[in-house]
Amino acid sequence: MVAATDWIAFALVALGMALTPGPNMVYLISRSISQGHRAGFVSLAGVALGFAFYMVSAVVGLTALVMAVPLAYDILRIAGACYLGWLAWNALKPGGASPFSIRPLQPHSDGRLFAMGLLTNLLNPKAAVLYLSLLPQFMHPERGGLLAQGLILGGTQIAASLLVNSVMILAAGSVAAFLASRPTWAMIQRWFMGTVLGALAVRMAFDTRR
Length: 210
Hints:
mainly alpha
């Protein structure tokens, strides 16, 4: 069983990470604005499945295999960097729109929404690294089965992500309206988001396995 102090500490770390903007949040907000709250929550279900995949993989040791094979890790790393770069370009290109802006996007089916949410998460190899490096710090063999501890901690991280992103989905329209009435703030937000995503893409592209 996970000690209460360890669980609280891990929950705070997970909440802090969930509050940090990233590809998942950008996609969920964009989809919620363009297609409604329901589409955002269907996409969020895909994101949650991606987290569950990495969590189970880390707990049972499969993620360690991916990290041990340079080619497998590099494929995920480069794919993730390209995706982040594409998001950054869409924010920074001339005439680019803020991820909070309402865009005339063609509605997607539930299946495609779910798949895109899952893909957004799986294309970020840092999720795998996160579980592999963070979970062991809060798991102690003397407190019982490591599998149960890992599932509890991983479930906590997924719950924190679901909570934060659910709030963002529900508030997406309000944020968009605020930015629409304040063009300067919208421009600052767009450039800030694009710069952050671009920096993350470069860092991920040149990152090396530790």
